[in-house]
Fold these 2 entries.
Entry 1:
Amino acid sequence: MIVDPSGAVCGARITDVDLSEPLAADMIAQIRSTWIDHKVVAFPDQQMDDDALERFTLAMGGFGKDPFFDPIQGRENIAAILREADETSPLFAENWHSDWSFLDHPPAGTCLLSIEIPPTGGDTLFADQVAAFEALPIERQEYLRTLTAVHSAKLAYAPDGSYGDKDRDNGRSMAIRPDESANETRAHPLIQRHPESGKEAIFSTLGYIIGIEGMDQSEAVQLLMDLAEWQARDEFIYRHKWEPDMLIMWDNRSVLHKATGGYEGHRRELHRTTIAAHAG
Ligand code: SIN
């Protein structure tokens, strides 16, 4: 297996490995540790179908829970990230986030397999939250460690959220299924230590955090907005450019991610699985 770091703050390309076949235990261990080190890994030139995607996800730690999406037909754990060529609905996942951070046990990672890639645009951006935390002044780090964030999916997936009732007539092709359970809240420390690397990271951002425990709401919103600006500074970003036949896997405990547009008139489809926490 050959590992080429992206040259940005995180991200690496892994070649000389065939993910269409079952992997030996030592190869699984090597891939996992490269993933933990680089936070986002891309495997070009893979001939993977949905069986191979499921097998790879199981090898990396097993399936995470996926609320608010219907899976693709015939599979329980694969969702399609899909945008038709003529679609005009607001872009899916265009805000920085860590997948499903509002769950009790958010997924450790996410896999995304290219099915149809537009000739231009559609890059996925990643923001390294270990680097973002480490670059803060010590006093700020100490203060942030004392805070507990209140996470919720309500702004996105509640019936009155951005993917709720008002999105219904937008002609969205993705199988998003909003419901009332999105209004639930869960508390997570704002700064979390990675269970495998031992490094601290800022966990998640505005989209899924609706407040800070014990803090006045306007003060919390101001803090979260200032922090969000810091979390997405240029020096913390890796821009992932998609290729056909490519799988990527990212670590939700170490990076934020967001989708980008720029492929109007072209179809884009990727198959996605999440990797359960407490793996490794
Ligand atoms: C996602 O957030 O799962 C999708 C990212 C993308 O479409 O680039």
Entry 2:
Amino acid sequence: MEQVMKNFFLFLSKNKPMTKLAKKYGLRFGAGRFVAGETINLAVDVIKELNNKGLFVTIDYLGEFVDNEIEANEMADQSIEAIKAIGRENLDSQLSLKMTSMGLDISDQVVMRNMRRILKAAKDNGVFVTIDMEDYSRCQKTIDIFTELRKEFDNVGTVIQSYLYRTEKDIEDLNEYHPNLRLVKGAYKESPEVAFPDKKDVDDNLKKIIKMHLLNGNYTAVASHDDAIIEYTKQLVKEHNIPNDQFEFQMLYGIRTERQLELSNEGYKMRVYVPYGTDWYGYFMRRLAERPANVAFVLKGMVKK
Ligand code: FDA
């Protein structure tokens, strides 16, 4: 049953008419639990609150699967606005963004032009930028964009998903760039031809790549709400004397908030991924797919309206 619900929400996450409707009607159905608000000013307030509690942040102006150049350029402008706000308000925040929002599906030229101006503005404001990883069909392209940009900028990283069979090789191949990588399980619906269908294999592979990347001496963001993964990382760094400034934990805004504070209070660097903006629908559906129990929040949200 859980798998059916998961597939249902992942199917809904790609529904364009629903995305349009959601933009039009604003944050609803309990999505405010996972999204900081629709404007940068609301996101800034949330970042300040998190920073005051000792938590680090990465913000994401929500948007994906953009199919025209004007919109892609506008998305890049919004990310630059966010970078300037981080600099102006002296916030402890990085930026995350998706290549399909920068024009990946339009042309190489559009996406590279937008990324270069974002990374330049980020550099000027001391902001690190992480390129989120999307579905399998865009994985190679995203890695190519990352490696190209990494040659020009040192303030860019990307994400690797442990559910993909190709991942171990990606970690090996990327090592020459000494990349700052966020390691995750993966949030999209993928076929068993390219991704492990069993959760146990996905979990084991995440442990495997965390170990590889850390022992290669690279900065590693372990982005998971899973206590087994967190405990594994804690043991690993202890065993191998890996310093606390070579890794961090990351979690999503609104998920396991208490655990975020606990880890921070234990002395670990804890970064919260804070999404904001009007294009909240796809992000929200993926969060529901990860934990259909969250549907209870949706139902409560509907009753309240
Ligand atoms: P898992 O799904 O096994 O969950 C472990 C436990 O965490 C659950 O039992 C539950 O207690 C809690 N939990 C997990 N999800 C929850 C939810 N939605 N609501 C409430 N509780 C929940 N993916 C991707 O494909 N590309 C990307 O770029 C990113 N980026 C990214 C950044 C950050 C900071 C995080 C934390 C995650 C991502 N992800 C991602 C998402 C990631 O791939 C994955 O889908 C989720 O993190 C869920 O997997 P977990 O590792 O948390 O474990």
